[in-house]
């Protein structure tokens, strides 16, 4: 190819929308092998079961392993479960909110102040009643269902909370998939993703108050912040379609210019030939 051809190809490449790789790809943090996993993985029954269940959990996906919850030394076979190395063992039912709440502080506070929290140890549910212990998955309003919520009382009050959560949950999932689309196009959405993630957590936490009025108040505030992100996403979308349009026009112009150059050059060569 001539120099001009290379130049043209270069120009065309520059006009392609955005880089093809993602600007803020994060590597997943799968926990390393530990002595806890090695020893318990080879056991049967109640001592081995947690390993398989945990493997499917959101905790594993986020690098939270046995010792992060139970304490102990994950590098030393002999001392692994020694209290000297911080081993906590398995918590009693009434201790579970404090056990999980070391990391989920906001949830723990909302829960303890709620009617559920105040009934802890007196027939009320705790974290594991609703989320399970080892196979904890991403939280969603599906956890509020006829089967799990009618073990202690009627579903009627559960249904009112679920309805109060449904709309916002829909907005959040919509935004999450919009941001994933933009990210695939190579646009950095880290800040917006951070905001949606924080609002998502704030929102999903509201449930633990089990108080319809508090859920309504919190929902209004969360929806306002989400609205701002939605506006930003819409702005980027329209920028992108304009960029595509102008990119297209520029390509056509370049092609025309390239054609003209070739023509000019040919005429010039022809004249040279004649002269
Ligand atoms: C060498 C094998 C071995 C290793 C290593 C090991 N465990 Fe255990 N674990 C056991 C056995 C056996 C039991 C049951 C007897 C007991 O409670 O001491 C047990 C019991 C437990 C229990 C239940 C305790 C209770 O109160 O019922 C937990 C929780 C636990 N292990 C977590 C861990 C964690 C976390 C680690 C790593 C820091 C770990 N284990 C490392 C063999 C092991
Ligand atoms: C998210 C925190 C968390 C993680 C991570 C976790 N556990 Fe547990 N584990 C618990 C809780 C809470 C209980 C008490 C469950 C209950 O009473 O329902 C428990 C109970 C246990 C028990 C006692 C089971 C019984 O039936 O007596 C064992 C054994 C155990 N865990 C081992 C493990 C091992 C091995 C791992 C890693 C694969 C692990 N746990 C990871 C929270 C966790
Ligand atoms: C050592 C810290 C730690 C402990 C202890 C812990 N978690 Fe987690 N948990 C995390 C992290 C980190 C995540 C992933 C980030 C996030 O989603 O907040 C997570 C995620 C979750 C989620 C999903 C949240 C979502 O975004 O949908 C639930 C539900 C959950 N944990 C429940 C529990 C329960 C129940 C316990 C106690 C049995 C527990 N956690 C103990 C650290 C912890
Ligand atoms: C009565 C059932 C119930 C109990 C008890 C309960 N949760 Fe939840 N939890 C839910 C439901 C339902 C959602 C999701 C609500 C939604 O989608 O808006 C949720 C959401 C969550 C989330 C996601 C929100 C966030 O901040 O990331 C975490 C983490 C969590 N729960 C942890 C806990 C912990 C820790 C406890 C104990 C202190 C607990 N839950 C007690 C039902 C429960
Ligand atoms: C282990 C038993 C148990 C389970 C399971 C349970 N609850 Fe409750 N719930 C209680 C108790 C105890 C109270 C407080 C006493 C009362 O009002 O009856 C309560 C109260 C409530 C209230 C009223 C709060 C208020 O301020 O008036 C709501 C709403 C509620 N629960 C929703 C749910 C939902 C949703 C689920 C399922 C995700 C659920 N509960 C699962 C035991 C339970």
TrEMBL record:
Keyword Signal recorded: yes
Keywords assigned: Membrane, Signal, Transmembrane, Transmembrane helix
Entries under InterPro entries matching the protein: Multihaem_cyt_sf, Multiheme_Cytochr_ET
Superkingdom: Bacteria
Transmembrane parts of this sequence: 245-264
Signal sequence coordinates: 1-22
UniProt-listed SUPFAM superfamilies: Multiheme cytochromes (SSF48695)
Keyword Manganese: no
PANTHER family named among the record's database cross-references: DISSIMILATORY SULFITE REDUCTASE SIRA
Protein name as annotated: Cytochrome C
């Amino acid at each position: 190819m001539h120099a001009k051809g290379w130049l043209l190809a270069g120009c065309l490449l520059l006009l392609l929308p955005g880089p093809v790789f993602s600007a803020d790809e994060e590597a997943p943090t799968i926990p390393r092998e530990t002595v806890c996993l090695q020893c318990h993985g080879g056991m049967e029954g109640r001592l081995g079961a947690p390993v398989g269940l945990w493997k499917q959990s959101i905790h594993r996906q986020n690098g939270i392993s046995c010792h992060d919850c139970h304490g102990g030394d994950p590098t030393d076979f002999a001392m692994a479960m020694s209290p000297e190395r911080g081993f906590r063992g398995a918590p009693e039912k009434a201790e579970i909110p404090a056990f999980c709440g070391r990391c989920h502080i906001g949830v723990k506070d909302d829960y303890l102040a709620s009617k559920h929290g105040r009934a802890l140890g007196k027939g009320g549910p705790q974290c594991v009643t609703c989320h399970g212990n080892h196979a904890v998955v991403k939280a969603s309003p599906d956890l509020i269902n006829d089967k799990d919520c009618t073990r202690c009382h009627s579903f009627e009050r559960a249904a009112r909370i679920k309805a109060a959560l449904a709309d916002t949950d829909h907005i959040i999932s919509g935004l999450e998939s919009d941001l994933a689309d933009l990210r695939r196009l190579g646009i950095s959405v880290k800040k917006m993703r951070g905001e949606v993630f924080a609002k998502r957590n704030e929102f999903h936490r509201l449930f633990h108050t089990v108080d319809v009025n508090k859920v309504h108040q919190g929902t209004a505030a969360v929806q306002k912040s989400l609205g701002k992100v939605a506006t930003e996403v819409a702005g980027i979308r329209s920028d992108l379609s304009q960029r595509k349009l102008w990119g297209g026009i520029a390509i056509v112009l370049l092609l025309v210019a390239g054609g003209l150059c070739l023509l000019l050059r040919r005429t010039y060569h022809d004249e040279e030939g004649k002269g």
